[in-house]
Amino acid sequence: MSFTPDIRLFSCHYTSQQSCADEGHELQQLNFPENIKMTRVVCTGKLEETTLLKAFEDGADGVYVVGCPADGCHNVKGSQRAAKRVEAVRSALGELGVEKERAKMFFLPRGLHPEFVGAAQEMNKLVTELGPSPF
Amino acid sequence: MIVAERKPLAEIIEMVQDCKKILVLACRGCVTVCSAGGEREAEILASLIRLGLKKAGKSAEVFDASLVRQCDKEYIDAIDQFKGQYDAIVSTACGVGVNFIANLRPKDNVFPALNTTFFGGSAEQGIWTEQCAGCGDCVLHLTGGLCPVARCAKSLMNGPCGGSVNGRCEINSEVDCVWQMIYDRMGCLQRQEEMTASAPIRDWSTSRHGGPRKQVREDLTV
Ligand code: SF4
Ligand code: SF4
């Protein structure tokens, strides 16, 4: 049975600038999976653990965060903080007997880079293989 | 402050598996400061309980709220505002808070979300260390301000023991031997002479050994 996962992406303004280019059409042309819903935040350091958990409560099969490189965050430690929160969610998923891989942190360069689409495709493949969320 | 940490989720979810309406109740005192049971942690826990129950094929209304503290009667009375909205309280306070709810609300089911670990302080961000054991007969004036009851693995009153090696305790080479620290500090304060006096056999009745303790301040009771 084919399965198209519901994936939520939380990305900072700086790493998701592509989403704005050409009114978002550019991402589509680059094969950014359509089943990934993106929420842009001013800085990933602003993300709360509850925001990521709420995404799972709302039916996400996978949740990932894209922030600036750990040593080059626009807000100095924002993406490092985000990574800690993603790790806390992964650990809680593990405690609940759910695959930790359903939550993931990516550190990517700011601006227009193919890695942004690459991360989306990687996450899409991973969560498709894992199957529907048990929640 | 009182330091605590969240219990394993499986343990918490087992406590509430048959509940239908769950109030996750935060405390804005010590456990907020040590990031174990404040408003943020209660909100996270409420979400995790919902997810855990859903995964187990159960459903319950889970909501979170907070009290100023859970170790004072007047704040516990504020639980009245949630009347009818819960059939169990999961308290993210320390054990004192859970006991207070149990003492004061005979009809309420209350469960602990935390393991209360010790009295301590924040050594650096995200790291807490035990400093006092509430023994009821403080000896810090004799030890340069460093507690041998809480910080020596054997609570020795005359240390260090033979297991002290290179300033570390024999229980674990990562743990400082507090008696070495006391010795060094007393030297630093030019009080090493005091270290030659032997502490007498201690009366532990002021500590846990004397049963539950109670303190009455006549000047404050009305
Ligand atoms: S001697 Fe007793 S009261 Fe004083 S710090 Fe140690 S445990 Fe606490
Ligand atoms: S090595 Fe030091 S801290 Fe450890 S038990 Fe002996 S005296 Fe206490």
TrEMBL record, chain A:
<feature type="domain" description="F420-non-reducing hydrogenase iron-sulfur subunit D">
    <location>
        <begin position="9"/>
        <end position="131"/>
    </location>
</feature>
<dbReference type="GO" id="GO:0016491">
    <property type="term" value="F:oxidoreductase activity"/>
</dbReference>
<dbReference type="GO" id="GO:0051536">
    <property type="term" value="F:iron-sulfur cluster binding"/>
</dbReference>
<dbReference type="GO" id="GO:0046872">
    <property type="term" value="F:metal ion binding"/>
</dbReference>
<dbReference type="Pfam" id="PF02662">
    <property type="entry name" value="FlpD"/>
</dbReference>
<keyword id="KW-0411">Iron-sulfur</keyword>
<protein>
    <submittedName>
        <fullName>Coenzyme F420-reducing hydrogenase, delta subunit</fullName>
    </submittedName>
</protein>
<dbReference type="InterPro" id="IPR003813">
    <property type="entry name" value="MvhD/FlpD"/>
</dbReference>
<keyword id="KW-0408">Iron</keyword>
<keyword id="KW-0560">Oxidoreductase</keyword>
<keyword id="KW-0479">Metal-binding</keyword>
TrEMBL record, chain B:
<feature type="region of interest" description="Disordered">
    <location>
        <begin position="200"/>
        <end position="222"/>
    </location>
</feature>
<protein>
    <submittedName>
        <fullName>Methylene-tetrahydrofolate reductase C terminal</fullName>
    </submittedName>
</protein>
<dbReference type="InterPro" id="IPR022026">
    <property type="entry name" value="DUF5981"/>
</dbReference>
<feature type="domain" description="Methylene-tetrahydrofolate reductase C-terminal-like">
    <location>
        <begin position="111"/>
        <end position="205"/>
    </location>
</feature>
<dbReference type="Pfam" id="PF12225">
    <property type="entry name" value="DUF5981"/>
</dbReference>
